[in-house]
C-alpha cells in the first residue's frame, strides 16, 4: 500500500479530529502549529486545510483566520440521502443470499457491539464502536464485491460523520444493535420493502441526535 503524502497525512489527521469532535466547530486552526506537530512543512498543511475548506469542514477567512466549520445540516441531509440510496441497492442485491457463516459474522459484530456498549470502562470504547458500526455496514458491500464503493462513500460523508460522536453519547445510540438486527433479519427473511424500512429507520436516527446536540450546542450547527 503506497505511503500517504504529507498533504494527505495532514488532511486525514485533521479530518479525523474534526469528525471525532477532538476539534470542535469554531476551534482555531494554526497551520504553523499543526505542521510542527505532524513534523511536516507548512505548505502541505496549508494545502490540506484548503482541501478541508472545499469539503466545508474548515472555514478560511483572511480577517479572522482558519477555524473548524460548523456542521452543515443541509449538506448532512444530502449526504444521508445519497448513502441511503446506495446502501439500499446493495442490501437488496444481497437479500436472501446470506449464507449461515455470513449470518454468524453479522451476529458476532452485533454482539461485540452490544458488549462494548454495556461496558463504559472499555479502552477506546467510542472509536471501537464506530469501527464496529462501519464494519457492519461495510460487510454487505464486501459480500457484493463492492467494498471499494463503501470506502468511497464513507470518505465522502463529511457532515454526517461529525454527528456520530454525539449519537454515541445519547439514548439514540441504544437502538444501534436492534436496528442492525432488524436490517439483518430483513436481509435473511424479508422483502425489498422490509429492507428499505429497516435501513431508513436506522439511518434516520441522526435526526434525533442532531436535535439533542443542537439543544446543548446550537453554535455547532448551521442550516445553510
What does this structure look like?
- With 224 residues, the protein is mainly α.
- It has two domains: 6-69, Arc Repressor Mutant, subunit A, CATH 1.10.10; 72-219, Up-down Bundle (Four Helix Bundle (Hemerythrin (Met), subunit A)), CATH 1.20.120.
- 67% of the residues lie in helices and 5% in strands.
- It has helices spanning 6-19, 31-38, 42-54, 73-94, 100-118, 125-143, 147-156, 160-167, 176-189, 192-203, 205-216; strands at residues 58-61, 65-68, 71-72, 221-222.
- The strands form two sheets. It has a two-stranded antiparallel sheet with strand order 1-2.
- Helix 4 (73-94) packs antiparallel against helix 10 and helix 9 (176-189) packs antiparallel against helix 10.
- The longest helix has 22 residues, at 73-94.
- The radius of gyration is 19 Å and the shape is globular.
- The termini are far apart.
- The model has no long low-confidence stretch (mean pLDDT 92).
- GO terms for molecular function: DNA binding; DNA-binding transcription factor activity.
- Residues 4-71 form the HTH gntR-type domain.
Amino acid at each position: 500500500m503506497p505511503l500517504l503524502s504529507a498533504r494527505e497525512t495532514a488532511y486525514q489527521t485533521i479530518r479525523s479530529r474534526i469528525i471525532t469532535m477532538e476539534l470542535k466547530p469554531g476551534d482555531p486552526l494554526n497551520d504553523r502549529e499543526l505542521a510542527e506537530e505532524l513534523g511536516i512543512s507548512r505548505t502541505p498543511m496549508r494545502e490540506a486545510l484548503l482541501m478541508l475548506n472545499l469539503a466545508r469542514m474548515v472555514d478560511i477567512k483572511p480577517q479572522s483566520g482558519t477555524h473548524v466549520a460548523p456542521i452543515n445540516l443541509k449538506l448532512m441531509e444530502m449526504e444521508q440521502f445519497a448513502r441511503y440510496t446506495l446502501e439500499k441497492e446493495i442490501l437488496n442485491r444481497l437479500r436472501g443470499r446470506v449464507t449461515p457463516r455470513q449470518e454468524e459474522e453479522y451476529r458476532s459484530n452485533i454482539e461485540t457491539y452490544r458488549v462494548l456498549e454495556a461496558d463504559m470502562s472499555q479502552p477506546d470504547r467510542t472509536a471501537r464502536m464506530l469501527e464496529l458500526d462501519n464494519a457492519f455496514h461495510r460487510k454487505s458491500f464486501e459480500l457484493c464485491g463492492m467494498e471499494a464503493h463503501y470506502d468511497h462513500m464513507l470518505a465522502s460523508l463529511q457532515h454526517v460523520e461529525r454527528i456520530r460522536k454525539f449519537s454515541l453519547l445519547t439514548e439514540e445510540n441504544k437502538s444501534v444493535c436492534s436496528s442492525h438486527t432488524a436490517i439483518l433479519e430483513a436481509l435473511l427473511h424479508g422483502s425489498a420493502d422490509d429492507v428499505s424500512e429497516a435501513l431508513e429507520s436506522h439511518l434516520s436516527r441522526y435526526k434525533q441526535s442532531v436535535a439533542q446536540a443542537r439543544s446543548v450546542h446550537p453554535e455547532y450547527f448551521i442550516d445553510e
